[in-house]
């Protein structure tokens, strides 16, 4: 297996979809649409500013859609995955699963190396 | 699908393995062991310093091993994936494949949004 596609072409995309906050937000939204503070509670350790910026980037790339319920009082803002965003769930879930299974081994290796 | 494992636990690992240079280096080494300059030629646009730092991080995490052939003149340094590194190839290949298939769509979405 070498690199599918041209490195220079996919590198900018990888830096966006491989970003740790993006990975977690995509997986959390894969369950169902959610509101800002709900996402923030589930993505531990993310700041309000980072969540705002990451969601804006995902909207710009067409991976997440934002819906305003103006008839609510106060108005609601809900985020959901687009069809394109849904296609990213499987590869990101596999990466997260790998990280969850190997985090202890990696931490032990890093501790030994330091 | 929600997030496998605890967010706070896997986030540090994700930021390392989801890094764009890490993704490309792991896939390039999945073919066979390679020397520094060979890796640098194949990972377009990476600086010498960034390649050195990324390889050092991969070694520390136990994903890449480094072998010195001191009997060569000049001595050779070769990098290869460890068994743990090999287990990361499939999820990273899937992520790269997704990026290669969707980079045009994402660029078009981003252009429309700006």
The two chains with the largest interface, and their residue counts, are: A-B, 58 and 59 residues
The main sheet of chain A comes to:
3 strands, antiparallel
> Beta-strand level of the residues of chain A, as a percent range?
5-15%
Question: What is the CATH domain class of chain A?
Answer: Mainly Alpha
Shape of chain A: globular
Rg result of chain A: 16 Å
The total of helices of chain A stands at 6
Oligomer: homodimer
CATH architecture of chain A: Orthogonal Bundle
Structural notes for this entry:
2 copies of one chain form a homodimer. Chain A is of the alpha+beta class. Chain A has one domain: Arc Repressor Mutant, subunit A (Orthogonal Bundle). Chain A has 6 helices and 3 strands. Chain A has helices at 7-17, 20-29, 36-42, 48-60, 83-87, 89-113; strands at residues 34-35, 64-69, 76-81. Chain A has a 3-stranded antiparallel sheet with strand order 1-3-2. In chain A, helix 2 packs across helix 6. The interface between A and B is large, with 58 and 59 residues.
């Amino acid at each position: 297996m070498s690199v599918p596609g041209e490195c220079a072409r996919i590198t900018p995309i990888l830096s966006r979809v491989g970003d740790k906050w993006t990975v977690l937000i995509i997986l959390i939204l894969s369950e169902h649409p959610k509101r800002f503070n709900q996402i923030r509670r589930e993505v531990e350790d993310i700041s309000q500013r980072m969540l705002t910026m990451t969601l804006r980037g995902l909207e710009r790339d067409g991976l997440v859609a934002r819906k305003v319920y103006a008839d609510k009082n106060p108005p609601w803002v809900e985020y959901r995955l687009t069809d394109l965003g849904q296609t990213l769930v499987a590869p990101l879930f596999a990466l997260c699963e790998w990280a969850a299974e190997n985090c202890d081994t990696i931490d032990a290796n890093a501790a030994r190396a330091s």
